[in-house]
Amino acid sequence: MGLYAADKNNEKEAIRLFKDGLRKGNEETRRRSAEALTRLGNMRERVAASEYLVSQWSDDNALLVACTELDKDNEFSTVILYTEKLDILTAPNDLVSLRMNAMLRKNDSRFEDDLYTWMLNRPLSSAHLEIYERYLNSLAESKVRENDAGEISETVQLGFSENSPIRPISLDDPEDEPVLTARQQLMDYRASVQRRRYYAAYTQIKKIVGVCKENDMDLPPMIVSDMGKSALYGTTDYYSAAIQFDRLSRELDGEAQFFAYFYAGRLYDKTGRYPKLAISRFRSAMEATSVDARFDNALWYMLTTQLRISTDDIIASLKTYCQMMHDKSYFDDFFESLSVLLLSHQQWQDFYKVWQIIEGKSSEETFCKYAYIAGRLLEDGLIRNDSGVQTREALAAFTRVLSGGADLYYKVLALERLNVTDKEYIESTLCAPVGERTIDVNPDAERLLAGYAAFGFPQKIYDEWIIHRSGIGIESSMQASQFLNECGSFNKKFSVQSLRIASRAKNNATEKIPHHLLELTFPRFFSEQIRSAAEENDLPEYLLYALVRSESFFDADISSNAGAQGLTQLMESTAADIARKLRITDYNILDPAINTRLGAFYLKELIERNDSATMLALFAYNAGLTNVREWVRIARRDWHETGKLPHRITGISMDLFLETLPYDETRGYGRKIVSAAALYGYLYYNKNPADVVRELMD
To answer: Comparing C-alpha atoms, which of 568, 565, 642 is closest to residue 602?
Structure first.
């Protein structure tokens, strides 16, 4: 009721109702009521509401809400008071920025020390640069005040611009330009790198190292990191830069030494001629750091560098380091690249070795992917195991995929390989939980979401769900998604939000996934348009639904960076060409009916041009027909040499052909289409997922 009153600009009634909510509501309702009160009433009332909010909830989010409103009212002393205990090394940058701004405005003596700590110990953000620019302005203004006003002929130009030098302070008389302290020069250097002035920053490396030595200061780790970035992007003489960081590493220790070794490795690697030196430096970087994320980063670069050297070296490294990976999912893209390398070079036995090494050491999703592919290679007799019983191990691999945390794509493929027809087993497989973390349910947050739905505030649900998603149970998430799904009939943005909530809830589910959540995750939005386009072009509806879901997530107004538009993500030139063929002269590419009609025609045309191979048509839809024809040519050439031709066009089985495609995006696209089509066929068209897979992979 308070929200209704606020929407109608009835501020007095809204304040009364929110105060009532403070007295009678649950924890989350009370908090939202307190936050709303910081934005209502006169200044005195808003300040009092902010004080109450902080007194009841002292976490960073409450401080951010309160201090944002106080900052608008120029209540800088109060902001400083409320943030006295703030940890500027871990708190949200937007909140630290509010404290810094207040300290600068009040000329707080602690400002420069805190600014230096904040600037030198965290990755820089736009909030850092904004405060730093204000700081520079204050320095220049102080300099101006020291001069006789009559001697200043022009206004001092301050702050950053695209063409400004590394030190962005400029006065009329160069002799009057302020001399920056050592700490100011370090902050200035960081700001320059953040502004991508890499060449200027690279030329300043020796100067910055000298400044630290002259002032008996340790070279801060983040400065060394910025030096590395400036070298990577500010010079083409990578070898000389690598030597420079090698020398620097001998003078440093701890995390600063880590960055020196790390960027030496990256620079050696960038030369394209010294991979062994690069690998050596990445190993040294791993030994120098005590930060898990940095260790993983150096290990990732080391393994990725080895992709270009020797498969034997990679396998040896995995045996040594695989169990040391901290964030297993961080390495998923490396294992994806390794998979493509091994399969495209027909190193099937090495693929089998990697699969055996990574069990329990890689992410579950990566292991199950390798399990499926290893099963297929065993099944086709392309690799041999120690026992010589390939078929039995292949069946075990497919079964492991179905029982583990595999991506949906590999699950439906495993169902097809095992020829599963039992409906209960299929349902239990598709509804198996995939999340690994137990949800600590927040009943007050769930009640608040239900309240937004009950009182008709769909615009509040998605943002609230994002805030509390780690504490929202599967039933509550499903109810929120269902309500937004229904609201999509009058505002399509709610349809997209419904799909996002359902997808995330499904992908993080730690309990059996309800069948209805599958339906919310694979909805049939724009059903009239899709049905009509599918019928006109003799395409299965479930395939067209899968295409639209994968291309645009049912966002009819979306445009990609490349210029693809609408539900089926058509380029204007492609749409115009299809429209001419269909004799459509006046059309809006974003109109759902037109867009799906053009997209369906284009897909049908690609299927015909690829000898009725649906998967090849889908690859061409994503990557272009010329690329697909070249990939097919290479595959047929390589598989002719083996004497095996499992597929009529590609030579290689279509599921394995997908795994060899050189484009990451196209491989992911193919997987999304197949899994979505299988689910749509299963949920709405009484199709066994295995049958859909066979139709597409033929």
So the answer is: 568
Q: How far is CA 516 from CA 269, 474, 513, in A?
A: 50, 11, 8
Longest dimension (CA), the chain: 94
Backbone angles phi, psi at 570, to 5 degrees: -95, 140
Both tokens of 311, joined, read 């498969």
Distance CA 36, CA 29 (A): 11
Query: Amino acid identity, residue 372?
Result: Y
- Rounded Cα distance, 111 and 109, in Å: 6
Q: Environment class of residue 123 by beta-carbon count within 10 Å: exposed (0-12), middle (13-18) or buried (19+)? A: exposed
> Does 658 have pLDDT greater than 70?
yes
In this structure, of 144-158, 249-263, 599-613, the range with the lowest mean pLDDT score is 144-158
C-alpha–C-alpha distance, residues 518 and 683, integer Å: 8
As a whole number, the mean pLDDT across the chain is: 92
In terms of residues, how long is the chain? Answer: 698
Residues 6+ apart with CB under 8 A from 641: none
Q: Is pLDDT at 161 greater than 80 in this prediction?
A: no
Lowest mean pLDDT among 332-341, 407-416, 504-513: 504-513
Q: Kind of pairing, strands 169-170 and 157-158? A: antiparallel
What's the rounded mean pLDDT across residues 487-491? 93
Q: Which residues contact 486 (CB under 8 A, 6 or more apart)?
A: none
Band of pLDDT at residue 388, cut at 50, 70 and 90 = low
545 pLDDT above the threshold of 70: yes
- Judged against a pLDDT cut of 50, whether residue 153 lies above it is answered with no
Q: Which residues contact 468 (CB under 8 A, 6 or more apart)?
A: 28, 442, 445, 449
The least confident of 20-29, 177-186, 241-250, 679-688 is 177-186
- Residue 570's SS3 state is strand
Alpha carbon distance 516, 429 (integer Å) = 15
Decide if 335 contacts 357 (C-beta within 8 A).
no
Q: What ranges in 361-512 are assigned the alpha helix state H? A: 364-379, 390-403, 408-417, 423-430, 443-454, 458-468, 474-487, 492-507
Residue appearing with tokens 């959540």: 517
Instruction: Name the residue with tokens 């980063």.
Output: 297
The model's pTM: 0.91
- The Cβ-side half-sphere exposure at 372, using a 13 Å CA radius, reads 27
Quote the strand ranges of 187-270, DSSP E: none
Residue pair 425/693 in contact by the 8 Å Cβ criterion: no
Task: Retrieve residue 129's tokens.
Answer: 């640069």
